[in-house]
Amino acid sequence: MPNVASSRTDPSATCEQALAGDLGWGLGVVFRAYVEAANAAVADLPGGPRGYQVLAAAAGSAVGSQLALAQHLGVDRTVMTYLLDDLEGAGLIERRPDPADRRARQVVATEAGTRLLLTLNERLQAAEAQVLAPLDDEAAQTFRTQLQLLASRANAVDPVDNPCQLAEHLDADVPTAMPPRPARSTR
């Protein structure tokens, strides 16, 4: 392990040498690489990363109403309306009357939206693989496990009510691949 303290005080050290052992710098660089790769993976979707979040929620049946979705994702209601208009115009979602409240609309992914979501998830997995490419499979899995441990601990100490709020706090929209869902019964 490099002697971080001495490289930080050595005037002949390069910037990269001075930051080599700096956790914040390393996390920032990896996060930026992931955000750029993930944003590129969903760039052609209306709304980009936000559109992905809406589509994923709609496909996962995690959405009650338009208002509930906006609140869940931390998106202003007006912005959500425009985003839904764009996704609906692209044929990716539908707004249906809520049987429990005729004033509310449910947001549901269309068949085309569900198919596109599968493609987007593959792209996001490729983006993750690109960021983790310097690691072999075992090291990548260890990194993921250790990162999850650190994230869980940090969240326990200072919880984030909504993961989307974290991305907003960091001034970035971060789409993440949805885990594969079990096949639905056709009964």
CATH level 3 topology: Arc Repressor Mutant, subunit A
The spatial strand order of the largest sheet comes to: 1-2
User: How many helical elements?
Assistant: 9
What low-confidence regions span 5 or more consecutive residues with pLDDT below 50?
A: 180-187
**How much strand?**
5-15%
Query: Rounded to an integer, what's the Rg over CA atoms?
Result: 20 Å
Number of domains: 1
Q: Give the second-level CATH assignment, the architecture.
A: Orthogonal Bundle
Order of helices and strands: HHHHHHEEHHH
Major sheet description: 2 strands, antiparallel
| Basic shape | elongated
Structural class: mainly alpha
- What is the typical, i.e. mean, pLDDT? 82
**How many angstroms separate the termini?**
59 Å
Name of the CATH superfamily: Winged helix-like DNA-binding domain superfamily/Winged helix DNA-binding domain
Just give the CATH class.
Mainly Alpha
Q: What is the helical fraction, as a range of percent?
A: 55-70%
How many β strands by DSSP?
Answer: 2
Highlighted features:
60% helix, Arc Repressor Mutant, subunit A, 187 residues, disordered C terminus, mainly alpha, 2 strands
Structural write-up:
This protein has 187 residues and is mainly α. The chain has a single domain (28-169), classed as Arc Repressor Mutant, subunit A. It contains nine helices and two strands; from the N terminus they run ααααααββααα. Strands 1-2 form a two-stranded antiparallel ribbon. Helix 4 (48-59) crosses helix 7. The chain is elongated and about 70 Å long. Residues 180-187 have low confidence and may be disordered.
